[in-house]
């Protein structure tokens, strides 16, 4: 049984934001301080990603553990009331997230998901540093120049002469 009245529960649920959440603002401030420039919630892309880095062709989704059903996370547990509703809602959210990321991948975008629990004080620095590393790695892979491999003209030629002991050893055999 819910301890709150329906009006109180409605007020609580209405206060939950979908944009400019604390974890999202934390990631945005870090990225900006590291020199990454981005756009927010691009309406032209499927799912309206939280952060869009066009230069890196990357979308960053900052997901709440409860709302997106983070499996194995201590911050995700189904409510004990109205369980069927919540199971269906979270399952729909997970399916929608996967489909949106598939669509973005088909369009040539990289997708990174940052979970709310990974931004807690004990893991925050490692998570943010890993995000910056991943973005730089993506950029370097996408913008590297592929040089054609040169075929060797004569495999038998050696760059250096063999030493005398090797030469005598090969002639004696």
How would you summarize this macromolecular structure in one to three sentences?
The chain is an alpha+beta fold and 173 residues long. It has helices spanning 6-14, 22-33, 83-106, 124-143, 164-172, and strands at residues 39-40, 51-53, 58-63, 110-115.
Describe the structure.
- The protein has 5 helices and 4 strands; from the N terminus they run H-H-E-E-E-H-E-H-H.
- The protein is α+β, with helices and mostly antiparallel strands.
- It has helices at residues 6-14, 22-33, 83-106, 124-143, 164-172; strands spanning 39-40, 51-53, 58-63, 110-115.
- Strand 2 and strand 3 (58-63) form a beta hairpin.
- It has a 4-stranded mixed beta sheet with strand order 1-2-3-4, sandwiched between helices.
- The radius of gyration is 27 Å and the shape is elongated.
Largest sheet strand order: 1-2-3-4
Strand content: 5-15%
Largest sheet: 4 strands, mixed
What share of residues is helical? Answer: 40-55%
Shape: elongated
Distance between the termini: 91 Å
Query: What order do the SSEs take from the amino end to the carboxyl end, as H and E?
Result: HHEEEHEHH
Q: How many helices?
A: 5
Tell me the total number of β-strands. Answer: 4
Structural class: alpha+beta
Task: Pick out the low-confidence regions.
Answer: none
Mean pLDDT, rounded to whole units?
A: 85
Our Rg estimate from Cα atoms comes to 27 Å
